[in-house]
Write a structure and sequence with these properties.
Chains A, B: It holds the Pfam family TP6A_N. Chains A, B: This is DNA topoisomerase 6 subunit A. Chains A, B: GO terms for molecular function: ATP binding; DNA binding; DNA topoisomerase type II (double strand cut, ATP-hydrolyzing) activity; magnesium ion binding. 2 copies of one chain form a homodimer. Chain A is α/β, with parallel strands linked by helices. Chain A has 3 domains: 36 residues, no CATH class; 245 residues, Dna Topoisomerase Vi A Subunit, Chain: A, domain 2, CATH 3.40.1360; 135 residues, Arc Repressor Mutant, subunit A, CATH 1.10.10.10. Chain A is built from 20 helices and 18 strands. In chain A, strands 11-8-14-13-15-16 form a 6-stranded mixed β-sheet. A 3-stranded antiparallel β-sheet of chain A has the order 1-4-3, with no helix packed on it. In chain A, β9 and β10 form a beta hairpin. The longest helix of chain A is centred in the N-terminal third of the chain and has 20 residues. Chain A is elongated and about 85 Å long. At the A-B interface, α7, β6, α8, β10 and β11 of A face α7, β6, α8, β10 and β11 of B.
Chain lengths: 435, 435
């Protein structure tokens, strides 16, 4: 290898006075990394040890973030919604409506106590490593000009959710809006009240059977039942299985995987699926094809909680890639009340990391200059608690901002279409090179 | 029913002087349509007769648009690319390169003959009912300042495609770009040359093993093999099976469906999947979740050609819904050279049609006013040959433009979340109400 390296270096010096790595030298260096790879059996034994460690660790460390006693204590201060079955949600609605009816009969009219979902009420809790909603409620009385309309909309949404649960079906937010366009006016209003109702009932939006559209796909060493149908994800071809929009119809999750590989983009997913990467290194591969949707986040969390596997992430080396990781890990601000059910803490950043660009000698032409907006987003991320907590992440982000360079996963294709699956990922796994 | 109708009408008159249908009357009318439904067995026998007729009709009428002798004749005038296996594409590349080498050795340098893909060269052929590319080639000599760069890029793309085919893998356009960023400069250039290469070799882009990302999903009475894995689409839960990006890995298509239901949107797809509509009326349900991607178009065409089933479309009642139909049926302009392989003619417009809004008394509040842009697109569609050919479509589009109203499939939710699957679609099928 060192011989190859020397030759590559000499060629680069001879051909160019520039310091930028040239394609030919970079390519031969990249090829030389192949010889660093130990036999698969050796890499697999490392992975097995890691998977065992992950499954044995305490729930908080393993990031399973189920509601523990500790959570319950602080739950007095912030809203925690949880998955509830239809019967439980229905009886919660019944109780709310009965209370309203009693209040009306006693001559006091009715009012809903609605948790405030304002930005000022959303905080990041380092202990829990996620964004949560503080407990602060405001009254929504019907007998008040300012709130009469919203109280009506709230009552209507409660009744619609009740109907959906009774029928045992699932609907989209759009469906909900169209059932009473005259009252709701526009969808933003019914959507907002739906989130209110989630907080009021203390249950997740999926428990209300109102689902988001699906975007994600999964392949690999995983079997589960989707609405009773047994799905074997090693037998889903190159296309993969679409992640179901209604997580509560997913059951019987089983796997012999050693880790979960979370991929930002479709193209990398396709490469991994076609090369059946999961047969060489037993894993579950999933992608939301960009910005993660609710269904994919719920699905990942279910896998993590039930299988207790390490989650390794493969994203672009740019601030947007890190943002996507933050959504998976800490949740998005406008769904903060549901962060416990939507987030998967303890995701490891495998690559492509800013330091990889030099380490793997990604050719200068395959790197892109960061735009002003990229730099702004990058600087903002440096201020985020979830980044600050991880020293390795801070360093990487600082490297990115210093070099002002970004790169896509696809940049690895400059060393050959299958470099990702044949060299880059196996070497990463062998070296346990994630942070 | 007439009693119900009278009551509903009376209620409407009593309650409101406005002519607009009100929610309550519309809802009771909508409910009354349920009684119009004949037993499923009767609807099924109609569908069976239609499916038999479709499978027996001549290829052009059935819209199977495989390359027939007739096509071959006119093919002298326009470019027809066809699916080719790897061996055939490889030998075509070899021939091109050998010709270039001979030309260089004889001292004449080399030049590629590249079909022009300019807009002026793209025409709609009524006989074939699709957009095609006229045969008009331009030379791309290497020994010319204006074309030297493009000739080099063309040679490089040919060599990359050759490498991909030799390895028997599939890559994305983005992968291709990243293998030589320095030469290609930006992806638009490698993409454009890739289309050139497709035309030059006379084969589809999927034959080059360069695939688009997948977006579509499918459920229902269909089994096929994806990269050798047997997929039963009645056992894909609510999420469905992701349509594979590489159509040439799809084989062994089998089905007992009576028709294919093409759905514009994810939400309607989810409703149909959850209600297992395909078990009541045997069908294959697919969606590209909006604007159709290449993978979904290729997949639909394969189903249509191999299964010879009628294709019924469920899209929004707006110009955009019709645009989507046009892409499935006639192709998009920038892929005109590949229209024979990407298009599925003879798709029937089942709904939601502008005339349905009054016929099903969709409440006024669930209809949306058309924007100026909508109206412009609608008027442009009226000038399109593929619309003009179908009198029914012209009438519907004129109705839309006259009333200046549009509506989404979801508008039917105003009559209940399952109205789509329980009343609207069964009634449409019973009445053979498509055009």
């Amino acid at each position: 290898m060192s011989e190859k390296k020397r030759r590559a270096g000499a060629a680069a010096t001879a051909a160019s006075a520039s310091k930028k790595p040239r394609v030919s030298s970079a390519a031969s260096y990249a090829e030389s990394l192949r010889s660093k790879l130990r036999p698969d059996a050796s890499i697999l034994s490392t992975l097995r040890a890691l998977a065992t460690a992950a499954s044995k660790s305490k729930p908080p460390a393993a990031g399973s973030n189920t509601i523990t006693a500790e959570d319950d204590l602080s739950a007095k201060n912030y809203i925690v919604v949880a998955d509830q079955d239809s019967t439980s949600v229905t009886s919660r609605i019944n109780r709310l409506v009965l209370a309203a009816a009693r209040s009306i009969l006693s001559g006091e009219g009715f009012s809903f106590a609605v948790p405030s979902r304002a930005a000022s009420n959303q905080v990041y809790l380092p202990d829990l490593d996620r964004i949560v909603l503080l407990r602060r409620e405001s009254a929504r009385p019907f007998a008040n000009v300012a709130t009469a309309r919203k109280a009506t909309v709230t009552a209507r949404v409660l009744s619609l959710v009740h109907a959906v649960l009774r029928r045992g079906i699932h609907v989209t937010k759009r469906d909900l809006f169209y059932t009473d366009v005259k009252l709701f006016g526009d969808q933003a209003q019914s959507d907002a009240v739906l989130d209110d109702v989630s907080c009021m009932l203390g249950c997740t939006r999926s428990s209300l059977h109102v689902v988001a559209s699906e975007k994600g796909v999964v392949v690999g060493r995983l079997t589960f039942a989707d609405d009773g149908d047994r799905i074997d994800c090693t037998r889903m071809g190159v296309g993969g299985k679409a992640i179901p929009p209604n997580i509560d119809r997913v059951s019987g999750i089983e796997s012999d995987a050693l880790f979960i590989l979370l991929v930002e983009k479709d193209a990398a997913f396709m490469r991994l699926a076609e090369d059946r990467f999961y047969n060489r290194f037993p894993c579950i591969i999933l992608t939301a094809k960009g910005q993660p949707d609710v269904a994919t986040r719920l699905f990942l969390r279910r896998l993590k909680v039930e299988l207790k596997l390490p989650v390794l992430a493969l994203v672009d080396s740019d601030p947007y890639g890190l943002k996507i990781l933050s959504v998976y890990m800490c949740g998005s601000k406008n769904m903060s009340y549901d962060s416990a059910n939507l987030t998967t803490p303890d995701i490891k950043w495998l690559g492509v990391r800013p330091s990889d660009l030099d380490k793997y000698r990604v050719p200068e032409q395959c790197r892109l200059p960061m735009t002003d907006h990229d730099i702004k987003v990058g600087k903002e991320l440096l201020e985020e608690d979830f980044v600050k907590q991880n020293e390795g992440w801070v360093k990487e982000l600082e490297t990115m901002l210093r070099t002002r360079q970004k790169a896509e996963i696809q940049a690895l294709s400059s060393f050959g279409f299958q470099y990702l699956t044949e060299v880059y990922l196996p070497l990463k796994l062998q070296q346990q090179d994630w942070i």
